[in-house]
């Protein structure tokens, strides 16, 4: 098929194409675009009850990315370590429930990427403002690495770094734009990855922010 460019493709088709990022990791360009308004409304409803906050790493640094969660388990960090827990440490209440539109999106994205259905029980919601970044890390606090992670980007574009099994492995950089979904499992499930410092900009739906949802089966 001739290359017709992303913008043009997206005008005709919500699915802007599939790109292999690594073994078992696939970028579904524009996959969440047609649902962007409802996804952002769901984030708004979640954060009314579980506000974004800057968590502290075990090393004592405040993260530049603001985070919250929904689902049966939420990812947290504090001076004692990283873990999943059922309650929001800030309010003492259970995390807000996983919205049905998140579950649907995870199932459809997993299928489109060739994975069996994922039923996520945890969704970490990241908010980046200009200057925020996420250092190279592995997602390894989940109980079972057999399940892929579904990651949804909304708002301003960001440069995503995708490395390998070892911290020092070469890193590939790709831009993740509004509506892009990454399904990430199999051999690259434990690969290092991060997000470079967000550049300022203006997105019609999110202003000067980027949101990222990572849907996982954590428990
Ligand atoms: C982000 N994402 O894109 C951060 N982790 O803002 C992640 O850390 C991530 O996108 C595991 C799998 C997919 C991801
Ligand atoms: Fe991650």
Write structural notes for this entry.
- The protein is α+β, with helices and mostly antiparallel strands.
- It has one domain: Sandwich (Jelly Rolls).
- Strands 1-2-11-8-13-6-3 form a 7-stranded antiparallel sheet, with helices on one face.
- It starts with 5 loop residues before the first helix and ends with a strand.
- The N terminus is likely disordered.
- Bound molecules: N-[(3-hydroxypyridin-2-yl)carbonyl]glycine and fe (iii) ion.
- N-[(3-hydroxypyridin-2-yl)carbonyl]glycine binds next to strand 8, strand 11, strand 12 and strand 13.
Which helices and strands occur, and which strands form pairs?
Elements lengths: L5 H7 L5 E5 L2 E4 L7 H14 L16 E6 L2 E5 L2 E5 L14 H13 L9 E7 L5 E4 L11 E7 L2 E5 L9 E5 L4 E4 L8 E3 L14 E7 L3
Antiparallel strand pairs: 1-2, 2-11, 3-6, 4-5, 6-13, 7-12, 8-11, 8-13, 9-10, 9-12
The structure holds N-[(3-hydroxypyridin-2-yl)carbonyl]glycine and fe (iii) ion.
